[in-house]
From TrEMBL:
<dbReference type="InterPro" id="IPR049625">
    <property type="entry name" value="Glyco_transf_61_cat"/>
</dbReference>
<dbReference type="Pfam" id="PF04577">
    <property type="entry name" value="Glyco_transf_61"/>
</dbReference>
<protein>
    <recommendedName>
        <fullName>Glycosyltransferase 61 catalytic domain-containing protein</fullName>
    </recommendedName>
</protein>
<feature type="domain" description="Glycosyltransferase 61 catalytic">
    <location>
        <begin position="93"/>
        <end position="267"/>
    </location>
</feature>
<dbReference type="GO" id="GO:0016757">
    <property type="term" value="F:glycosyltransferase activity"/>
</dbReference>
Length: 374
């Protein structure tokens, strides 16, 4: 796939995209308080032209970067040695584990490993101009890949590597969710390969303890439903990636709310692991379909979507990906669907909240929420 193709082809190999540039410029994306992306940034060749292969994307049609030109008045730092271009380094876990890993597949196609990996810093207000924060916040993800180059750089000012190896982006969101063939092979080969299965065969992966706006209402009731059906209730944020992977590799039934835990599950599962996965949506965007596609291409899981959404509640300004909404499900219908799919045996120990209970739950949120019927 060329970097400017309209769609991403998960069957198309990327190995022929690998190229090495002498003395290019890494031009970081600049911060702007009113908007995160897309913004000019990427790689500029020694000839002064922007390198299209360095574009970073959320999907094939949604760019994270735009072409840029060098500013001769801005000082440049030299980076001796050979570096792999890693694309965007995003401290947000869900983006880090897909976009910030999306070019590591190139390492499996090099005769000599590079001296390090160099990234563009994602534009986050509390991280910008603090490269050590980017590196520290993402260290656990990169530690899950033994044998990577130990040096990572995230320059927030223009930098000039002595040599730079580039390969096409092999993973992302939307139509990028299946991953390229080389990316899928890299993940199965290198993502915590020595972690053995350990834990329950039935796992409910919960978001109930996350202090985020984007979540389900009354997930404690859903937890109780699964506990009554013999599931272990698992909160991944309380465990290391190693512990998470061990649990997912041991499971035969996993149900979870749509979210970044599904990226880890897709990476962790053995290519032939027989597992049933249920996904409960928390928004009405295409994110759930992206996770289904990722699991289809990166695992042998049988995936079921339990879509019993009835309402969304959102602040006055709703983000495009609905990352700040609270989702209300018909819990009784959810339980019946779970039972029909064979994911639980007993659907009775759950009740829908009353309107008064819903109002009380909304009043406890830090922002006034607007009701959206579905």
């Amino acid at each position: 796939m060329g970097t400017d193709s309209a769609t991403f082809d998960p069957d198309a190999p990327l190995a022929r995209s690998i190229t090495t540039l002498d003395a290019p410029l890494i031009w970081p994306v600049t911060h702007h308080a009113k908007n995160h992306s897309p913004r000019p940034g990427g790689v500029i060749g020694a000839d002064g032209h922007f390198v299209d292969l360095s574009h970073c994307r959320y999907t094939s049609t949604k760019r994270w970067t735009l072409p840029c030109v060098p500013d001769p008045d801005v000082p440049v730092t030299d980076m001796p040695g050979t570096w792999l271009y890693g694309g965007v380094l995003d401290p947000a876990f869900g983006h880090c584990i897909i976009e910030s890993l999306s070019r590591l597949w190139v390492l499996d196609h090099l005769d000599t490993p590079p001296d390090g990996i160099v990234f563009l810093p994602a534009v986050h207000r509390s991280f910008y101009q603090r490269p050590k924060r980017y590196l520290a916040a993402t260290q656990a993800v990169f530690d899950a890949f033994p044998g990577l180059p130990t040096r990572r750089a995230c320059p927030t000012q223009p930098a000039r590597p002595e040599r730079l190896i580039l390969g096409a982006q092999g993973m992302g969101g939307g139509d990028f969710s299946p991953g390229a063939p080389e990316f899928r092979a890299f993940i199965k080969r290198h993502f915590l390969p020595d972690v053995a299965p350990a834990g329950s065969e039935n796992l409910y992966v919960s978001r109930a303890r996350l202090s985020v706006m984007g979540n389900l209402m009354f997930e404690d009731r859903i937890e109780a439903l699964f506990a009554a059906n013999g599931y272990e209730i698992f909160h991944p944020e309380a465990h290391s990636l190693t512990e998470q992977v061990a649990r997912y590799r041991a499971a035969r039934r996993i149900v979870t709310v749509e979210g970044s835990a599904l990226h880890v599950i897709a990476y962790a599962l053995a290519p032939d692991q027989p597992v049933e996965i249920g996904i409960i949506p928390r928004r009405t965007t295409g994110n759930t379909a992206s996770f289904v596609a990722q699991l289809h291409w990166q695992s042998a899981a049988r995936v079921h979507v339990i879509d019993t959404l009835t309402r969304l509640y959102h602040p006055g300004r709703i983000y495009g990906e609905q990352s700040n909404v609270r989702a209300l499900h018909d819990l009784r219908r959810m339980a019946d669907e779970l039972a029909a799919l064979g994911l639980i045996e007993n659907a009775t120990p759950i009740a829908n909240p009353t309107e008064d209970e819903i109002a009380t739950a909304l009043a406890a949120l830090p922002k006034q929420m607007v009701r959206m019927e579905l």
